[in-house]
């Protein structure tokens, strides 16, 4: 199977670290021209310098803060100058804690940063995808849409909303050669996981390292994922080879999720 993204343009969110950065590097290595999206311009410039250009690609970036939907719309209206074939929606999850203690503002902020910003991004690129007769919209969400994760009440709620939004879009956009799929990463070696281990350690009276070992013990693979492993999944779903895969929630979690 030859995954070749030459002459394909990809818009990748949250792409200065973790899964987003790994996906940008992987797609660029396969020939795509990348537009990075994140809020820190210095980090964007650094990642931009790391992207392969072996196929003569023209990579660039957009500075955007997903806490402001109005500003995001304005940035996209000015910054999108090409047709995009691939969109990766990827935003860091809301803070943890029991759902009963969550303030209403936590739900509102998470809903805005995840679902509303995803929707704004899709609306910005979908006309070009329809023109091309080719579109791949991939959302990085969470295994919590299949099995809620203890201590991540707000995230569990919002991720479920994103999954159902995505499934609805998949039905509407499928006739235009556009697929919409969700990748559900398990515990992945990123900065966010480091903080989760610290929080779990405090809760069970253990060190972050001990908490990490416990987390690994409940994964059949007995390890955390590397960001590159999630990126490989993104690349496949973005390819021609995945053209008949639409509207799915795909766990990439080493077998941790117990539901089918």
Brief summary:
By secondary structure, the protein is of the alpha/beta class.
N-to-C SSE series? Answer: EHEHEHEHEHEHHHE
Total of domains: 2
Quaternary status of these chains?
single chain
Relevant CATH superfamily of the largest domain: NAD(P)-binding Rossmann-like Domain
- Find the structural class using helix and strand composition: alpha/beta
The helicity comes to 40-55%
CA-based shape? globular
Strand order of the largest sheet: 3-2-1-4-5-6-7
Helical stretch tally: 8
- CATH arch. level architecture of the largest domain: 3-Layer(aba) Sandwich
CATH level-3 fold name of the largest domain: Rossmann fold
Compute the number of strand runs: 7
What does this structure look like?
- The chain is α/β, with parallel strands linked by helices and 260 residues long.
- The chain has two domains: 9-186 and 226-252, 3-Layer(aba) Sandwich (Rossmann fold), CATH 3.40.50.720; 190-224.
- It contains eight helices and seven strands, in the order βαβαβαβαβαβαααβ.
- It has helices at 18-29, 41-50, 69-79, 104-132, 153-173, 191-204, 208-217, 227-238; strands at 9-13, 33-38, 60-63, 86-90, 135-140, 178-185, 249-252.
- It has a seven-stranded parallel beta sheet, sandwiched between helices.
- Strand 1 (9-13), helix 1 and strand 2 (33-38) form a beta-alpha-beta unit.
- The chain is globular.
- The model has no long low-confidence stretch (mean pLDDT 94).
